[in-house]
Amino acid sequence: MSLPAHRWISPEEYLAFEAKALEKHEYVDGVVYPRGDPDHPLDPAVVLGLRPEPQVAMAGSTLRHSTIKVNLTIAIGALLRNTPCRLYESDVRVRPGSAGYLYPDLLVVCGEQGDDLEIEVNNPTLVIEILSPSTEGFDRGEKFDHYAVADSLQQYVLVSTRRQGTDVFTRDDGRWVLERFAPPDHLHLASIGVDLDFAEIYHNVQWSLLLQPNDTTRDRE
Predict the structure, then answer these.
(1) H or E element, residue 89
(2) What predicted TM-score, i.e. pTM, was given to this entire model?
């Protein structure tokens, strides 16, 4: 059975598919795609179980991306210990609204904590995405728009893999204010009362291996 390639998937259809899928997928405005790969949406027939999901090699993240994520996890986790806030990593799904189901690199919830056997939250306080060349545009645009639907969200942080620096969007009286932090300043996360040294965030990153403008051999960081 064939279906129109543009057929939108309902949230219920996505959740039924995701519950049985071997890999994680995100959902934005009726479109389902592999986590972190918005350029390759799934055929609706795959989501509906009419065709198997193609067996393709998962791109994954680079060692640099993973290093930064681990550094942030260690630093933020230690500072949030014995506070009401909880740090979660990318296996936890965020449902900011019915039109989006997303897996951020890291998120913090400072409000009501649900059952710790759940796999989803809808009240993020802070969301952190570590940028890669292939997803940066999506992270800055459509993905941010969906996270911002959650009234609980106070800050959205984009961490660069090309330089030591971050873009921090902070909710201020109904609008989003952008601040850029880079050394020698600290990264100030007002939403959770945390300041981070960039030396901690980028510990063990090999800056000699910067991606060149025409280098297509490493398109994910």
Answers:
(1) strand 86-89
(2) 0.86
